[in-house]
Specification:
The protein has about 325 residues and is an alpha+beta fold. About 25% of the residues lie in helices and about 25% in strands. The chain has 9 helices and 13 strands. Strands 1-2-3-4-5-6-8-7 form an 8-stranded mixed β-sheet. Strands 9-10-11-12-13 form a 5-stranded mixed β-sheet, with helices on both faces. It is elongated.
């Protein structure tokens, strides 16, 4: 079974900074355990022998659902046996658990001085809950750069996912090097690679960073922290995060005031000056416009002093009938 394409038996050596594998996994999960989202409590922990059946089932179900163009080279029985006898005993596996159910798995390795993401799977029913991102971030916070992985060339969803975290395609294979004989891509994440992610998870919003920017912005100059917090409490909030060297820094933000049915107002949009010029504002806005709770809106408004060109790129236009619009303006109130 081969690396990153199907299952891959982890090498017996574990040279990562001299730490035994179980110590590595403990360090990995300590950074991201018990992640809370509005819909679930996600626990990332080291895999146990008793998890073998669930881990194997997760790998098989995910492969069948998302990589159907590359049927597994091994039978389900072989995968179950490999997981129980080789993968989990290696001590290099973390699982994502919701309640009593294992919903994701990530396995890593160090081979010839290279750090690898070998396996990263999420159960099909749980895709879209950012579980894969949590598992990947937990691994990246402990692996020395560069980090390598393989994925199939045809798996566009997987490729977009890794590229969002800063992985860059290093080489393209014709499939002769993997058991499925499907073209693959070797990805590499360098030490200084910039990785960015957009999220609407409330627990990730960094109020201090958001307030620090808004209080010096032209539209909310001098606004106090409590008022920012109150506004966020009654809005849909979207954060833009820079992921580097095991840290996560919020460098952008936007919020939407909406009834989630017919009307929304977009405001407080920013990208920190040190990260501009990379298309991040458009990426943030694209994420907002694709949010499932904003798909039935009849009108989406915003106000801007100098961002007309940016907003025009995603479909905003001047008011069609400005004579029908009015406002009650109280400029003495910040924001």
């Amino acid at each position: 079974m081969q690396r990153g394409i199907a299952a891959h038996p982890i090498a017996h050596e574990w040279p990562w900074h001299g730490l035994p594998r179980q110590r590595y996994i403990e360090r990995m999960i300590s950074t991201d355990a018990h992640v809370r989202t509005p819909l679930l409590t996600l626990n990332i922990r080291a895999a146990r022998p008793s998890d073998a059946e669930s881990v194997a089932t997760t790998i098989i179900e995910s492969r069948s659902a998302f990589v159907s163009f590359a049927p597994m080279a091994h039978s389900p029985e072989d995968v179950h046996r490999w997981v129980a006898q080789a993968l989990i005993p290696s001590g290099s596996v973390a699982v994502a658990q919701v309640g009593g159910e294992i919903v994701g798995v990530c396995a890593v390795d160090i081979e010839d001085g290279r750090a690898w993401i070998n396996q990263l799977y999420v159960k099909p029913a749980w895709v879209g809950q950012r579980i894969g991102g949590r598992l990947l971030r937990a691994a990246l916070q402990t692996l020395a750069r560069p980090v390598w992985l393989y994925t199939f060339a045809e798996n566009q969803g997987s490729r977009r996912f890794y590229e969002r975290y800063g992985f860059v395609a290093e080489a393209f294979g014709d499939g002769s090097g993997n058991e499925e004989h499907c073209p693959d891509v070797l990805y590499r994440l360098d030490e200084h690679a910039d990785a960015y992610e957009v999220s609407d998870e409330p627990n990730r919003m960094q109020l201090d960073a958001i307030h620090a920017y808004l209080t010096r912005s032209y539209w909310s100059a001098g606004i106090d922290r409590e008022r920012v917090a109150r506004a966020m409490a009654h809005s849909m909030n979207f954060g833009l995060f820079h992921l580097a060297q095991g840290t996560e820094t919020q460098i952008g933000f936007a919020r939407v005031v909406t009834d989630r049915s017919s009307f929304a107002y977009l405001c407080d949009v920013y990208v920190h000056e040190s990260h501009r010029g990379k298309g991040l504002a458009k990426r943030l806005l694209d994420h907002i416009l694709k949010h499932p709770e904003l798909q039935t809106l009849r009108r989406f408004l915003l106000a801007t002093r100098d961002g007309h060109g940016l907003y025009a790129q995603i479909g905003f236009t001047p008011l069609a009938m400005p004579e029908r619009m009015m406002e009650l303006l109280k400029p003495e109130r910040p924001g």
